[in-house]
Amino acid sequence: MKSAITEPSDATLIKRLQSNDLSALGTLFDRYYAQIYRTAVAITHDESVAEDITQDCFLRLHRYANRIDTSLPLAPWLYRVTVNLAYTWVTRHKKRRVSLETVVDYLMSPARNTPDQVVEVAGIQEEVRRAIAALSFNQRVVVVLHYLNGLSLEDIAQILDCPVGTVKSRLYYARENLRHQLVSIHGEPQVAHGYSR
Amino acid sequence: MAIPDNQLDDLITLTLRTQTVVPRRQKEIAWRQLRRKTGRQIILVPYAVPPAPAQPAASLFDRIRGTIGRMLTILLTDERRYHRAAESRGFVSITSVFGSGLMIHFYLPSRYPVY
Hints:
The structure holds two protein chains of two kinds.
Chain A: H1 10-18, H2 22-44, H3 47-63, H4 74-92, H5 94-107, H6 116-120, H7 123-133, H8 137-148, H9 153-160, H10 164-186
Helix pairs in contact in A: 1-2, 2-3, 2-4, 2-8, 3-4, 4-9, 7-10, 8-10, 9-10
Chain B: H1 5-17, H2 24-38, H3 60-77, H4 79-87, E1 91-97, E2 101-107
Antiparallel strand pairs in B: 1-2
């Protein structure tokens, strides 16, 4: 039997939010919290910062509810705010970022030197994670939006407000950097569990 | 040896998608914080769209200037009018004769040059 109750669309919820209906914000929060939080973590590599960014993102959704174009999908708007907030955080914490990079360098040293808790995490994925962390901000954002959120190059270009060619080029160089780093760590490709060569 | 494209794509996707677990408790706490903070902020009003400025009535001078402009545009761009004018044009030659002023000669155009 087909359910008579259908989920309200994002546009409907935003219109309700415009009249300060917080239950609409709650539904949108339920719908997008995990996606936005994961995106923020993947970009900043800091869970507490990612929590703040996600919180700020939804606060902005509330604050700017009247200024959001309901004829357009909401997800790109949320991603754009997330990326902008992450960028602000990265540029404001440049000093801290340098120390983070030092930590990344340390973590990228051979496995026998890493702390036990890092060794426990699945090896190859941990190395991919470190390699992603070592990418430049612009390359990392494109990689996260493309691979984590499954967005097309055109969607990413709209979110980042830049030409599709730029996104394509950033993705290409990001992949080359990742490939180079993974090969230089192992000398030959490692294959994740469940993935055949 | 390079990692094949599809393997690299799979590795990145798998890594990013399994990187972060969002515990239910964390989400609940975040929602409570968000509710508290939204109580302290106001929803901004929509962007005000400025009304289009009223067009002032065209003065007589503007109308005359517009008409002349349109006529000139027609004359300069309308091929048919140009060819009609070119077909019926007369040649005018002005020569200066010393002591007797200017002499104006009118003659019709000839298909062939006269030497």
